[in-house]
Design goal:
With 432 residues, this protein is of the alpha/beta class. It contains 13 helices and 20 strands. The strands form four sheets. The chain has an eight-stranded parallel beta sheet with strand order 8-9-10-11-12-15-16-17. A six-stranded mixed beta sheet has the order 3-2-7-18-19-20. Strands 5-4-1-6 form a four-stranded mixed beta sheet. α5 (167-180) packs across α7 (215-232), α7 (215-232) runs parallel beside α8 (244-255) and α8 packs parallel to α10. Bound molecules: N-carbamoyl-L-aspartate (NCD) and zinc ion.
């Protein structure tokens, strides 16, 4: 995927927490790698012999890495494909995405993984990594062949879409994952606490008369898995943390020195139960949008490090599926194309999170979690994956996306902060 061209990203403010850098630098790229970061007065010679990517007035950051993307291949191609998900990713500043295995069939065997890796190589304009299922068919009955999945290049294990409900089975999966050096990603939800639930157990859903699931459905599995992580030594990552109590549990796990991390989505940082207009299914998501106090606790936890990452949980569903009404529509919202705008508008611009912490949560940390040694940083020698962001540019989210779907709760929202250009391996894959 790397390009041989010499390129200079010129005139931007480089924000790179991996080298504690926030300064005007021009990024010289050669052979698909970062060659040097040049102070503006040193770059005239390089500029004469390189193609220029204009970053005047922009922030230049290491390519964003999304730990939670539903690319829907195989089986869900009417909603998304590897090709369309990768275009949406590029438009959102993401240069690497981790695809979830809740496909049809589930990604639970090495042969399918090899096929998908080859397909992504052909179709995708960003790096696509794959998480494999933790249990066969994601049915929660017996573990997948974790050693062979690891050998075939799976980057993580998860039954995302649901939790591994049986604690004994979760323990075995985590022991095996630890042996193979894989991260176990848990979708924390005890379904017995919210059978048929379609909303957060709180005042908004009560008023609407919707079937509800309480915060404890999430936090009880969070606490169980933290205990199992300590027992097994497994590297545990908690998907889409949504409740204040779950964030507190993560902080406690860190105090104990455990290798446990968590992610939060842009929609859980920006929205709460009161923001759902009527029964618009484009706001229906799992875990559900919770209370204001949860949202505020998530923002604080991300800022102070109890929560490590922002991941989109990009979950495309076709307009037909979402038109089925609140009770029947599948849960899930788009994320890739709006994440930067939402996080800058709601957190970085209002001063709730620093630029460096933001880049850490969307690039440096995800690279570390997935053990991607040449990503998440713009140090010389690293892959030339980068995003150029116009922080002051305001835009209105249109109701058409590069994603094949349009189930976004942010359609019509006015956001400040736009992705100008995205480079993968020194190649421009998105430019406005
Ligand atoms: C996801 C999906 O649509 O695949 N839906 C969702 O509401 N988040 C599944 C998941 O991430 O749990
Ligand atoms: Zn999930």
């Amino acid at each position: 995927m790397a390009s041989d061209k010499r390129l200079l990203i010129r005139g931007g403010l480089v924000v790179d927490p991996s080298q504690n850098l926030e300064a005007q630098r021009d990024v010289l790229i050669e052979g698909g790698k970062v060659r040097a970061l040049l102070a503006p007065r040193e770059s005239a010679r390089a500029a004469a012999s390189a193609e220029i990517v204009d970053a005047a007035g922009c922030w230049v950051v290491p390519g964003l890495i999304d730990l939670h993307v539903h690319a829907r291949e195989p089986g869900g191609e009417s909603a998304e494909t590897l090709a369309s998900a990768s275009k949406a990713a590029a438009a959102g500043g993401f240069t690497t995405i981790l695809a979830m295995p809740n496909t049809e069939p589930a990604l639970d065997n090495p042969a399918l993984l090899e096929l998908l890796k080859a397909k992504a190589e052909r179709d995708a304009c960003v790096n696509v990594l794959f998480a494999a299922a933790a249990t066969v068919g994601r049915k929660g009955g017996r573990p997948t062949d974790i050693a062979r999945l690891a050998a075939a290049g799976a980057k993580a294990l998860t039954d995302d879409g649901r939790a591994v409900a049986d604690a004994g089975l979760a323990r075995r999966v985590m022991e095996w994952a630890a042996d193979c050096g894989l991260v176990f990603i848990e979708h924390c939800e005890d379904e017995s606490l919210g059978r048929g639930a379609v909303a957060h157990e709180g005042p908004a859903a009560l008023k609407k008369g919707l079937a509800m699931s309480p915060w404890a459905a999430e936090t009880s599995v969070v606490l169980r898995d933290i205990a199992l992580a300590e027992l097994t030594g497994c590297r545990l990552h908690l998907a889409h943390v949504s409740a204040a109590q779950s964030a507190a549990a993560l902080a406690w796990a860190k105090e104990r020195g455990l290798a446990v991390s968590g992610e939060v989505t842009p929609h859980h940082l920006a929205l709460c139960e009161d923001d759902v207009p009527g029964q618009d299914a484009n706001f229906k998501v799992n875990p559900p949008l919770r209370g204001k106090a949860d949202r505020d606790a998530l923002i604080r936890a991300l800022k102070d490090g109890a929560i490590d990452a922002v991941a989109t949980d990009h979950a495309p569903h076709s307009p037909e599926a979402k038109a089925a009404g609140w009770a029947s529509a599948p849960p899930g919202v788009l994320g890739l194309e709006t994440a930067v705008g939402v996080v800058l508008t709601k957190l970085v611009h209002p001063g709730k999170m620093s630029k460096k912490r933001w880049v850490e949560s969307m690039s440096a940390f995800p690279a570390k979690l997935l053990n991607l040694k040449s990503k998440g940083s713009l140090k010389p020698g690293m892959d030339a994956d980068a995003a150029v962001i116009a922080p002051a540019k305001s835009w209105t989210v249109p109701d058409a996306f590069l994603s094949k779907s349009r189930n976004s709760p942010f359609v019509g929202a006015r956001l400040k902060g736009q992705v100008r250009a995205t480079l993968v391996g020194g190649r421009v894959v998105h430019a406005l």
